[in-house]
Amino acid sequence: MPTSLPIIPCLPSKGGVRRDMSRLEAGWNFYPDCENVIHHRGEFRVRHGLAKFGDSLSRYAGGSITFVAKANLIDGETFTVSDGTTAKVFEFDVDGGGVGGSNVQVNVSGVTTAIEVAGVAHTAINAQTFNVTSTNPATGTLALENDASGSAGNVAITDTVADSGFTHIGMGGGGGRPAGMISYPCEDEAARLVAVSSTGMAHYDIGTGLWVDVTDPENPLTGGVGNVGVLRVFQGGASLLTIAVNGKDEPVVWENEDAVHYRKLDCETPRTARCQVLCADRLVFGNINELGANGIDFSDHLDPDHGWGANELFLGDTPGDIVAMREFSGGTFVVYKSDATWIGRLVGGAETFAFQRTSAYNIGPVGPNAVLSVGEGLHLYLGDDGGVYKFDGVQPVVLSETLRVYIAQRLDRARAGRSFAFMDPETNLAWFVFPVQGSDETNAAVVVDLAGGAAWPMRWPARGLSCGIAAPVQSGIKIGNLPLIGEMTMTFGEMESSVPAVILGGIDGQCYRESGYTDDSAAIPFVIETGDKPLGDMTALNPVTHSTHRFKPTASPQLVEFEIGVSEDGESLVWEGQQTLDLSEPGAHELGHRVSGLTYALRFSGQATQPVVWLISQIGAYQGGIR
Questions:
Q1: With DSSP H G I counted as helix, E B as strand and the rest as coil, what are the percentages for the chain, rounded to 5?
Q2: pLDDT tens digit sequence for 369-399
Q3: Is the distance from CB of 506 to CB of 195 less than 8 angstroms?
Q4: Could you tell me if 229 and 179 are in contact, meaning their C-beta atoms sit under 8 angstroms apart?
Q5: CATH architecture of 61-172
Q6: How many CB atoms are closer than 10 A to CB 188?
Q7: Element (DSSP H or E) covering residue 405
Q8: For residue range 557-580, what is the model confidence (pLDDT) as tens digits?
Q9: What is the pLDDT of residues 177-206, one digit of tens each?
Q10: pTM for the predicted model, two decimal places
Q11: What mean pLDDT do residues 95-103 have?
Q12: Are 265 and 307 in contact (CB under 8 A)?
């Protein structure tokens, strides 16, 4: 008897979907054989692509040199400028007798004033074959800029000039790999998006669509690829203070939304922290270089510049380090060590913090930005063993052992601290992005659907990522881009001012927005694979003769490879009969087959440059074949 079995986009469950977060740790769906696809709002689709968001945060190293008159120079004095690869030593030739060795001559024997000395130096610098260019505004001070972006050019200018009037700044400010992001509302109710980079801080200007660097060149950050940036916004009097720590440099502050108010945190006792949190109008630092990996310190009330050193304490009952901190509920916060979990709260007339250990010798997060808040009193984090853990104030619990094994087999432990996590409240999706073995880049992820109780693997083969956030982004929306009126949940004014967006920072300094159908013109590789299903009576082989597949049609040719998986013993699958579908062809895609088995599975794969949305498939078989 011929029979048909529909295979719908809701893939086979491995034990049932749990929609209650309290039970998410058991019996939910994970699809390890899929890649870059997600089932959401009734559609099984290839993930959105990445489109450039703003200009690059990778800046050119710059500096300046202020010169003195010839009368203030001594013959043979030098200054040295480097492009990060090649250093040039420039020697002042005051009496015209030449210079020593391989030094570059700055012949000032025929000039007098500081402006003229600067002019000679300008010509000498630009005559060299290295990546530094001088600009001469004829003021006695030269502006220098590296010809290539990146942190390699952040090499300090040095000199042997005795006169105190000879000064220089930089080279600095180069680089700018995004290391962390934060979004918060401002006084005008617009959402402000701020990024801390490896070299400083910048905010996104919605008017120009560009990142505005607010870094003070004399107080740059010097973070490397392993230094994760953690941001918090502190209400300090009348000012909103955006404070960044990275575990290497002293904390920096951007206040009053003005570049001239970027500064180092004015701690009377130096504090260089790996993580931070806000509690009871105080700033709390953890894993502090000056105190050790178990050290904690906090500021005065409403004053992040003072109080440091008077309140320090240690959570050293277990040997692990403090890895991350996160606001929790009811004026509390969680301190995550690599092997224990503590909850902190303010006690004693709002003067002292008390800590309660809730668990010990458990698995902690992989890094400072690998913890996300799902809601009041509930965290998820990516654990050091590859598991995604839920913490509700008692004991961290792994969500899925299958998911843990999948990540553990791929996670690059040496670079695991670069992992990051964020929550997209618009879609109820939690993202956990991590570095994979065999790659220098953080370009793999699992995305957990908290409402549907399912998870999918993601990959960005052409991109290395360094941080991410789901944030409202102001955007002027055209009528043609609006959804159907019946699907709208916001007014036209609200949609014009705020659009939810996933923003990802790239290790190349460029930020990307999750939109479009390619990764900045690169095709998105995808795999959709179902679990195997029996066709009728499991006591006999059931020959499959045809299959029908429906996708949303694409505007132009989009090829998808189809294979059918066959099992004769109900266990191992053999993939057969690869055929090509063109989604631009209208209607159902009918395919013929000649295979027999007990159970069957479907696999679709390809390189997406357009929306690929799978709707339904149907297998036609004859039931009751011969064993």
A1: 10, 45, 45
A2: 999 999 889 999 999 999 999 999 999 999 8
A3: no
A4: yes
A5: Sandwich (2.60)
A6: 6
A7: helix 401-408
A8: 999 999 998 888 767 788 988 999
A9: 899 999 988 765 567 899 998 888 999 988
A10: 0.80
A11: 90
A12: no
Tell me which DSSP letter residue 13 carries.
P
How confident is the model over 215-267, as pLDDT tens digits? 887 788 888 778 899 999 988 767 789 999 999 999 999 986 655 678 888 88
Cα four-point dihedral sign 229, 231, 236, 240: positive
SS3 163: coil
Contacts (Cβ under 8 Å, ≥6 apart) of 585: 553
User: Which run of H or E residues covers position 466?
Assistant: strand 465-473
Higher-confidence residue: 497 or 13?
Answer: 497
Residue 270 has pLDDT above 90, yes or no: no
Residue identified by tokens 């597949």 is: 549
CA dist 279 and 332 (Å) reads: 7
Amino acid type, 119? G
- The predicted pLDDT at position 26 comes to 45
Pick 2-23+523-622's CATH classification: 2.50.20, 1.10.10, 3.40.50, 2.60.120.
2.60.120
CA diameter of the chain:
106
List, as one string, the DSSP characters of 571-614.
S--EEEEEEEEETTS-S-EEEEEEEEESEEEEEEEEEESS--EE
Q: Are 272 and 286 in contact (CB under 8 A)?
A: no
Upper half-sphere CA count for residue 608 (Cβ side, 13 Å): 27
Mean of pLDDT values over 467-491: 57
Structure-block tokens of residue 452: 């549907």
Single-letter amino acid, residue 391? F
Could you tell me which residues are beta bridge partners of residue 402? none
Domain regions of the chain by residue span: 2-23+523-622, 50-56+175-265+363-514, 61-172
Q: Which of 51-55, 234-238, 416-420, 427-431 has the lowest mean pLDDT?
A: 234-238
Domain 2-23+523-622 shares a fold with domain 61-172 = no
CA angle 531, 534, 539 (to 5 degrees): 145
Backbone φ/ψ region at 25: left (φ over 0), alpha (ψ -120 to 50), beta = alpha
Any residues with CB less than 8 A from the CB of 6 and at least 6 apart, and which? 616, 617, 618
List, in order, residues 6 or more apart from 611 with CB less than 8 Å away: 45, 46, 517, 552, 554
Running DSSP on this structure, what letter comes out for residue 35?
A: B
Q: Is the pLDDT of residue 487 over 80?
A: no
Any alpha helices (H) in 94-241, and if so which ranges?
Answer: 114-126
pLDDT at 4 over 80: no
Phi, psi angles (nearest 5°) of residue 20? -90, 120
Q: For 202, phi and psi rounded to 5 degrees?
A: -150, 155
HSE on the CB side for 204, CA within 13 Å?
28
Residue range 530-549: mean pLDDT, rounded: 78
3-class DSSP state of 111? coil
Residues whose CB is less than 8 angstroms from the CB of residue 464 and which lie 6 or more positions away in sequence, other chains included: 440, 441, 442, 443, 506, 507, 508
Query: Distances in Å between the alpha carbon of 305 and those of 21, 243, 251, 310, 602?
Result: 40, 11, 10, 13, 60
Average pLDDT over residues 292-300: 94
